[in-house]
TrEMBL record:
Pfam families per the UniProt record, alphabetical: MFS_1
PROSITE patterns per record: MFS
Alphabetized GO MF terms: transmembrane transporter activity
Keyword Ubl conjugation belongs to the record: no
Protein name as it appears in the record: Major facilitator superfamily transporter
InterPro entries in the cross-refs: MFS, MFS_dom, MFS_trans_sf
Location of the Major facilitator superfamily (MFS) profile domain: 67-477
Top-level taxonomy: Eukaryota, Fungi, Dikarya, Ascomycota, Pezizomycotina
Transmembrane segments: 63-80, 100-118, 130-151, 163-183, 195-214, 226-245, 293-314, 326-344, 356-376, 388-407, 419-442, 454-473
Cellular component GO terms held in the UniProt record: membrane
PANTHER family: PERMEASE-RELATED, TRANSPORTER, PUTATIVE (AFU_ORTHOLOGUE AFUA_7G01190)-RELATED
Source superkingdom: Eukaryota
């Protein structure tokens, strides 16, 4: 007789006495493990759910259709909104708001100082409460701040708005990194992260088209129209996010109990943990003392020193070639297409092939080296196409960033440790973007030789950091394999293990991906 799904579940149900958990033990369990126990899902039944390959593929497609559009559109709007200032700078921002180019160079620093200050408090709040509600509320607030920017007519007003924008954008990328880590397996995370980060490139293209179209307006200041349109769209999208983005697998409304159990089982395969709202001080200490975290932090710092310059001065580099605002905006659009190509190809390889992530991180810096050299050394009057091509390919470093940014969620066990490490790495993201623009000196426009030298130096240094990280993680895996072999340890399926919110240092069965 064929058993129904409910009958199979009942047959594989754990014994009631095994569910008698002491209060202290329950508090140490991953929230996903508590969910499985409260709903009487045994490891055998979860393993049976995972063995249904066709069902798992359908479930992942459903997660993709529900989750990725929400994350991708948010990231797209975040990029356009962050770049709205550089689009406005191409038009009449400097004259209407009475600011100088040196004052303009300070705006990115103000944004990322606020980002740096607000990031960990937001991350703490997101872990302790409802992650999706925190991020949605911040999206609504940053849209409102962006619209308010259109009312500014001096340096002080613009500076205040940039600072507030940094505060409200701070939790988005760290929280999205944790969301991807919660819903997808370690093999699937890089490409999904790549899809989200590729929206930076799409945002660059759409933002360029929008600003080009808005640039045709003759009856209203173009730079103000850019801020009003971008801010209004973001505020409306924040309301959509508030309604539809789930806070976690456990409370997601559009999935059945069996589907949630399957997603939790998939998450357990990497032994990183899924969700725990208890802040554990020893995990914070472990994150701070882990060399892996600091290698990633250094990598991201160097990467974002490049980004801080290219993102804020790229449009001005092009404007130095054509001396026309609308043409400069149009010529910047292909940069977005190249970014999509770099990010999707790099993160696809990181997902498709085993242990090539650090090689992707290093290898995708080569086009950045070549492109920067072209921008720096080619004659700008006779070889404009070569300079433009150099500008387009120098953005390959974003593929390295997208791969590196998912590493804390992929390679660290313990929810508090992952959240802390993510915050540290994103702190470096902020510092790099604060420092980077200051190497692009106004008196050196439009070639910015000092900025080009810094980009080249940072790219080479990142290659060494990526390879050092590879050696560290490989050595850790070999040591654990040797210890397991010496102890004749039997490898149990990850699904059978109790998810007790252990860190990667505490769990000898944890293996790193690199």
């Amino acid at each position: 007789m064929n058993l129904s799904a409910d009958d199979k579940k009942a047959e594989a149900m754990v014994n009631p006495e095994k569910l008698d958990i002491q209060t202290g033990e329950l508090r140490d369990l991953d929230a996903a493990e508590v969910f499985l126990r409260e709903n009487n899902f045994s490891s055998e039944y979860v393993q049976e759910l995972l063995s249904d390959e066709a069902g798992n593929k359908r479930l992942v497609r459903r997660v993709d259709l529900i989750l990725l559009p929400l994350l991708c559109v948010t990231f797209l709007l975040q990029y356009i909104d962050k770049q709205a200032l550089s689009y406005a700078a191409v038009f009449d921002l400097f004259t209407d708001a009475n600011i100088t180019q040196d004052q303009y160079a300070l705006f990115p620093s103000m944004f990322y100082i606020a980002y740096l200050v607000a990031e960990y408090p937001w991350s703490y709040l997101a872990q302790k409460t409802l992650m999706a509600k925190v991020t949605s509320g911040c999206v609504i607030c940053w849209g409102a701040v962006l619209m308010a920017t259109a009312a500014c007519n001096n340096y002080a007003g613009l500076a205040a708005c940039r600072f507030l924008l940094g505060i409200f954008e701070a939790p988005i990328t760290p929280c999205f990194t944790m969301i991807v880590g919660m819903w997808y397996t370690r093999d699937q995370q890089p490409f999904r992260t790549g899809l989200i980060y590729s929206c930076n490139g799409l945002g660059s293209m759409i933002g360029g088209v929008l600003s080009y179209a808005i640039g045709q307006i003759q009856t209203f200041p173009v730079w103000k129209a850019i801020f009003l349109l971008c801010g209004g769209l973001t505020t409306l999208w924040g309301l959509v996010l508030l309604v539809y983005l789930p806070d976690s697998i456990i409370v997601a409304k559009r999935f059945t109990l069996e589907e949630k159990a399957t997603l939790i089982g998939r998450g357990k395969l990497g032994r990183t943990g899924i969700l725990n709202q208890s802040i554990k001080l020893y995990q914070i200490k472990e994150a701070v003392l882990d060399p892996q975290v600091w290698l990633l932090t250094l990598f991201v710092l160097l990467n974002e020193m490049i980004n801080g310059g290219v993102a804020n001065f790229g449009k001005l580099i092009i404007k130095g070639l054509v001396h026309d605002s609308l043409r400069a905006t149009a010529l910047g659009i292909p940069m977005g297409a190249f970014q999509i190509l770099w990010i999707l190809s790099g993160t696809y390889m990181a997902s498709r092939f085993r242990n090539v992530r650090t090689l992707v991180m290093a290898g995708y810096l080569i086009p950045t080296l070549i492109g920067t050299s072209l921008m720096w050394k080619l004659d700008r009057s006779s070889m404009k196409i070569g300079v433009l091509f150099g500008y387009y390919i120098c953005g390959a470093f974003v593929a390295s960033l997208a791969t590196a940014m998912q590493m804390p969620a992929t390679n660290l066990g313990g929810y508090t440790k992952r959240m802390t490490a993510t915050a540290i790495v994103f702190g470096a993201y902020c510092v790099g973007n604060i420092v980077g623009p200051h190497f692009f000196l106004g008196r050196e426009a439009p070639t910015y030789p000092t900025g080009c030298k810094v980009i080249i130096g940072c790219s080479v240094a990142q290659m060494f950091v990526a390879l050092s990280l590879r050696m560290l993680l490989s050595r850790r895996n070999k040591k654990r394999d040797a210890e397991a072999a010496a102890a004749n340890a039997i490898e149990d399926p990850a699904v059978d293990e109790l998810s007790a919110d252990k860190t990667d240092f505490e769990n000898p069965k944890f293996r790193y991906v690199f």
